[in-house]
Each structure stands twice: as structure tokens, then as C-alpha cells.
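We emphasize that the prediction below concerns an isolated chain of 248 residues; any contacts that depend on oligomerization or on bound cofactors are therefore not represented. The input was used exactly as deposited, without trimming of termini.
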Amino acid sequence: MKSLSRIREPVWLHLTENCSSFQARDCNACLNQIFKEKTFGNSNFEESSLFATQRAFDSYCQTCEKDVTFNSRIFLTYVTHSGLKKFGFDVCSWPLYVAIVHTQPGRLIFKHCKSPTNQLKMKSTVSSRFVFIEFAPEIMEGLIMYEKIEIDNSFYVLKALMRNHSVHFTCAIHNDKKWLYFDDLCKNVREFASIELIQQQFPGGWFFAVFELFCDNDVDDNKTASATQTKKISENQGIDNHRHTTFY
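Result of the prediction step, given as a C-alpha cell string:
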């Protein structure tokens, strides 16, 4: 506890200096402000590979008449209703949206002439060990969490979740093949056998997820996991279309 006390104040100081929403130290703090270049500061390749997907794209600037390479990093993926709608996805298909965000460049601007890019080609990508995902308030009530998602042929397993219900924050952490649910209004930590059981007990309000890279060289297992994820998304789309048509 003494070590935690020594660490807490410097961390809070750094956050309040770099993340404006944290200055009041209340429930209005926006987690996505943490996951920015400014907050993380200067980091080397190994440090960045823990928390950020690193990508490089090749393009040609017609204005400058030269080849250009863009380097970009993704610290956090923010899933919104408008973002899902842009690609024709419903709320249950958010893993597909996350995969697209991590593999497509989006809109980039040439630094010197400020012209928009076109015909970008992926040069390289380095998957991060952890993937952080925040969900916008308008999609939280219809949200379904998955134990595993696929991004650029890599699989990530769900490790932790945060929930905001009636301005009260709780979290769930996967540890030793079981889920632990932490609520500071309860004396004991609750245990669950699966993420499905937690969602049944506490529906809605889940707004932040942490996934960790799944290291398994078994190709057959990965193919099975991919097929399982696709099946779950398809099944949940049917449920969502029936129960939550207001999200579309």
C-alpha cells in the first residue's frame, strides 16, 4: 500500500497535466485522452509495441511528385455508432470494425503540401501486445463482448473490462481461467466462469475493453477460433436485429 501511495500522486499529476478531463478527478474523465502520443511521451519501438499497433503506408504525392511513407500508431480504438454505420456494421459487429481501423489508413495528409493522400499501400504493420477499445455511450446498451477477436490475422483474448452504471464504475478481470468482478460497494470479489455469465448478471454499461495478443502457433486452432468468432457475430446480429433495432 505504501508503494501504491508513492506511485499514485505522480501518475495523477502526469494525467492532469496532459489530460484536461482528468483535472477535476471525477466521473467525467475520458479514458481515450490517456491513449495519445502526448500522454505516452517519447517511447522506443519495444515500448510502443506493448500498447500501440504500428503501421507504415507507402503513397505517391502528385503535388510534390515524390514517394512518401507514412508512419502511424494506434493506441486506442474508439467505436461509435457513426463509425459502425460507415462500413455497414451493426453494434454486434464491432470486432470487424476494429479490424478495419487497424489495417486501413483512413484519411492522411501529406506533411509538406497538405494535400490528401490517395492509393495508400500497406508497407508493414506490427501488432501490439495489448489492444485498448472504448465504446461510445450510444452503443453500450446493445453491446456484446467476445472472448476473442481477430485483427490482421492475429488473435486477441479479452483480459479486462470496465463498466459505468449510474455513474458507478466497476471492472472485471480475467485471471486463472475465471473472471473476477470488482465493485468497491461490495465487500467481496465475485467470481464468474465466463464473460457471458457476467454480461447476463450485469447487462449494459460496459464501455472499455483490454485485449491481449494470443500467442499460439497452432494454425488449425486459429482457424477454428476465426470460424467461431464469425459464427458468434452472425448469431448476435440476428439477436440484435430482433431486439435492438433502434441502434441502426
